């Protein structure tokens, strides 16, 4: 009876419930991808950001439970047996997912500053991109099948490329500002180019402006002032 009950809870990976859940997790991942890098800026306390963090953590916690009920395909074979699905998840993404969720809940519940080890675990959140990439690719493939005209497909591809460009610009800008606020060097570009009383919007738009110039022929007055900033610029 227990085995039959468990089997009834199993979901086809290409079924509508999984597709709907993939849309939810993809939207949550997109939100995390845009908001997490902003933590390098002096972000003011905000009820909206706090609510989004709680919603994100709850969704990723539910995703762990959902993963135990989601079948998977391997070598053109669909595995829907509950025990095999659970074992597969336990030996692949379970440890990473639980570690990230543990860090997120500690961050939400605890008021004190997190230890450096737990702060570093925030970087692991971006491993979710690797986990969700096949699902997102499948969703995009299904969506592209709905677009029949060549014009529509061209617009869809251009929109996807523009979105990727915006995300990369955002990440590079946040990384540039984060390097500029490190205490490793006496001089930094933030000290040389940003007034001490500059607003959050000015700091972010300045970083975005610098980031755009790294991918276009344009230039601006901000330049590296130490070895780490110079290396970051060369890497780009």
Percent helix: 55-70%
What would you call the structural class?
A: mainly alpha
Radius of gyration: 22 Å
Strand content: under 5%
Low-confidence regions: none
Major β-sheet, in short?
Answer: 2 strands, antiparallel
Q: How are the strands ordered across the major sheet?
A: 1-2
What's the short version?
With 236 residues, the chain is mostly helical.
Overview of the structural elements:
With 236 residues, the protein is mainly α. A hairpin with a 2-residue loop joins strand 1 (72-74) and strand 2. It is globular. It starts with a helix and ends with a helix. Helices cover 67% and strands 3% of the residues. The mean pLDDT is 84. The protein has a two-stranded antiparallel sheet.
Topology:
Blueprint: H1 2-8, H2 16-35, H3 47-67, E1 72-74, E2 77-79, H4 82-90, H5 94-109, H6 116-120, H7 127-146, H8 150-180, H9 189-193, H10 200-213, H11 227-235
Antiparallel strand pairs: 1-2
Helix pairs in contact: 2-3, 2-7, 3-5, 8-10
């Amino acid at each position: 009876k227990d085995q039959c009950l468990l089997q009834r809870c199993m979901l086809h990976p290409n079924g509508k419930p999984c597709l709907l859940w993939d849309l939810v997790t993809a939207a949550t991942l997109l939100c995390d991808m845009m908001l997490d890098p902003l933590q390098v800026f002096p972000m003011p306390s905000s009820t909206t950001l706090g609510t989004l963090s709680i919603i994100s953590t709850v969704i990723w916690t539910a995703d762990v439970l959902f993963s135990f009920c989601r079948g998977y395909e391997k070598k053109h074979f669909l595995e829907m047996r509950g025990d095999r699905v659970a074992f597969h998840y336990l030996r692949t993404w379970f440890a990473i997912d639980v570690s990230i969720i543990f860090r997120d809940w500690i961050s939400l519940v605890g008021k004190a500053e997190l230890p450096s080890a737990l702060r570093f675990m925030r970087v692991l959140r971006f491993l979710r991109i690797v986990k969700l990439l096949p699902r997102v690719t499948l969703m995009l493939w299904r969506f592209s099948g709905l677009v029949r005209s060549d014009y529509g497909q061209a617009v869809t591809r251009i929109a996807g490329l523009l979105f990727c460009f915006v995300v990369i610009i955002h990440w590079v800008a946040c990384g540039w500002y984060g390097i500029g606020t490190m205490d490793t060097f006496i001089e930094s570009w933030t000290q040389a180019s940003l007034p001490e009383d500059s607003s959050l919007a000015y700091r972010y738009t300045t970083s975005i402006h610098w980031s755009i110039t790294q991918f276009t022929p344009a230039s601006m007055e901000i330049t590296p002032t130490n070895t780490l900033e110079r290396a970051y610029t060369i890497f780009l």
